[in-house]
Amino acid sequence: MALPEIRKATPQDAGGIAEIYNQIIRDTTITFASEEKSASEVADQIAAADAYLVACNGADILGFASYGPFRKGPGCAGVKEHSICLARAVRGGGLGVLLLGALEDATRAQGVVHMVAGVSGENTGGLRFHTRLGYEKVGHLPEIGQKFGRALDLVLMQKTL
pTM above the 0.90 mark? Predict the structure, then answer.
């Protein structure tokens, strides 16, 4: 099987991205979000993000990654926070490494110095993934999130690019 293409997301990708993200919202604590996103809302997110990439096989969206400001204002201009999500069928197969690598390349090209990930404490796969890629745990916020009637921890991870 050929490697998936990784490219900039377009508004036409919004439906496929929403499908992946909405499954994660409905079924997991990977995100603390509890309301599903419409394709229109995702298209707006694509337009607003500093960078938004998709991994695809033809017209099929397999995953996406984006980044935006970590905090508002010029004091943290060299720091970006990213998000990465993969379709259930392709998780654990190496696509996330390729997608996050491409996103990090885009951040370096824009002069970004640090990348931050906020990972649900229950997302042990996401914590291992980021650790393998050079992210270090720099903070732990106990019970800061809420989902499925439970209090959830948020782990902050950082990588110097």
Answer: yes
pLDDT digits (tens, 9 = 90+) for 122-142: 999 999 999 999 999 999 999
Provide φ and ψ at 134, rounded to 5°.
Answer: 95, 10
5-113 CATH fold? Aminopeptidase (3.40.630)
Tokens of 30: 């990977």
Helix (H) or strand (E) holding 6: strand 5-8
Tell me which residue of 117, 116, 118, 119 sits closest to 79, measured CA to CA.
116
Secondary structure (DSSP) of 61-100: EEEEEEEEESSSSGGGTTEEEEEEEE-GGGTTSSHHHHHH
Residue % of the chain over a pLDDT of 90: 94
